[in-house]
Specification:
Layout (H helix, E strand, L loop, with lengths): L1 E5 L2 E9 L2 E6 L20 E6 L16 H14 L5 E6 L1 H12 L4 E7 L8 H17 L2 H11 L3 H12 L3 H12 L5 H4 L5 E7 L7 H10 L4 E5 L6 H4 L1 H8 L4
Parallel strand pairs: 3-4, 3-5, 5-6, 6-7, 7-8
Antiparallel strand pairs: 1-2, 2-4
Length: about 250
């Protein structure tokens, strides 16, 4: 992977393929490797940029609190470095929250938005408290707290669960804590979505046990022109559980 220094961190990324610039932002608590099975199906259509978001994979982070806006700024700075004026921006789960922050803050730099296994609503008080409680547990006991809680929720597929356990264990305590707090403090995005007039893609598995499929259907209701793809049998990781269906859906952003 390549790395660049920006916004006080070192951001790692890969770049593959040719065509329409497409940023694929991974979700919590994983890294860019979630796209490995979908990537070969996209390289003939897109110039694919795959960052490790701050605190995950090979990217570093800071101890000070940061927010989705800061993570979106990292993406904008990466595009500056690559001399890319605008791109289709796609996020999985937490990556969707980053993509929405990017759409809010850099409206002239986004040519299409994709939300995979994500949602537009902010955390309610209970969910917010839960994220802070998990952050405290991670600070005390380490990343294993998240590994056990998340792996089986991400997918019912044992292969994907094994990948998740291995990948989560590689992440840093600081990155996990920073992301949990940033997610807890994120803004709602329903009002933003109602204003978008470019291509919006929503991909959701109907067996998602982390962010229920109803959240994806709600986005379709908010954005009548959105392209909505529901993948039967897929959980929270459709890019691994159904890479062909996910890649085919993404091509609407070309």
């Amino acid at each position: 992977m390549k790395t660049i220094d920006l916004n006080g961190i070192s951001l790692a990324y890969e770049r593959r393929g040719r065509g329409t610039p497409l940023v694929l932002i991974h979700g919590y608590p994983l890294d860019h490797t979630i796209w490995n099975e979908t990537l070969p199906l996209l390289e003939d259509t897109f110039d694919v940029i795959l960052p490790d978001v701050r605190g995950f994979g090979h990217s570093t982070t800071i101890r000070d609190p940061y927010f989705m806006d800061d993570m979106a700024s990292d993406v904008a700075s990466l595009l500056d470095h690559l001399n890319i004026d605008n791109a289709a921006v796609v996020g999985h789960s937490m990556g969707g929250y980053i993509a929405l922050a990017f759409a809010r803050n850099y409206p002239t730099r986004i040519r299409g938005l994709g939300l995979i296994s994500s949602q537009a609503a902010a955390d309610n008080a209970e969910r917010k408290d839960g994220r802070y409680a998990t952050a405290r547990q991670v600070a005390e006991k380490g990343v294993g707290v998240v590994t056990e809680a998340m792996a089986t929720k991400l997918s019912a597929d044992p292969r994907v669960q094994a990948y998740a356990r291995d990948t989560i264990e590689k992440q840093s305590v600081l990155g996990i804590i920073g992301a949990l707090k940033a997610m807890a403090e994120r803004e709602e995005a329903e009002s933003l979505l109602r204003l978008l007039n470019y291509t919006v893609l929503v991909v959701h598995g109907d067996a998602d046990s982390l962010i229920p499929v109803e959240r994806g259907r709600e986005i379709k209701e908010l954005v009548p022109h959105a392209q909505y793809v529901e993948l039967p049998g897929a959980g929270h990781m459709p890019m691994m559980e159904n890479p062909e269906g996910t890649a085919e859906a993404l091509k609407v952003l070309a």
